[in-house]
Amino acid sequence: MKAHDVQRHPGPFRMIPVDSESAGIIVAIAFVVLGVVGLPIGKFFLVGAVAFGGLVALMMYLLRR
């Protein structure tokens, strides 16, 4: 009987080139979905994080001028 060498499945990460930017976007979208759908306290954390991020971005914009 002949032995066949079985090729490994390439998997999603070997077929799709993923850089750090797109991986970060995927993680951010997953975090938003988890915060909205998951825990009730996650909604408040998500809103607070977005508000704090907006405040920091506004401060950096105004102080850079």
Structure, explained:
Helices cover 72% and strands 0% of the residues. It has 65 residues and is mostly helical. The chain has a domain at 40-65. It has helices at residues 12-15, 20-37, 40-64. The termini are far apart. Helix 2 (20-37) packs across helix 3 (40-64). 0% of the residues are buried. The chain is elongated.
C-alpha termini separation:
76 Å
Order of helices and strands: HHH
Low-confidence stretches: none
Q: β content, as a range?
A: under 5%
Query: What structural class is derived from the secondary structure elements?
Result: mainly alpha
Number of strands: 0
**Individual helix count:** 3
Instruction: Name the overall outline.
Output: elongated
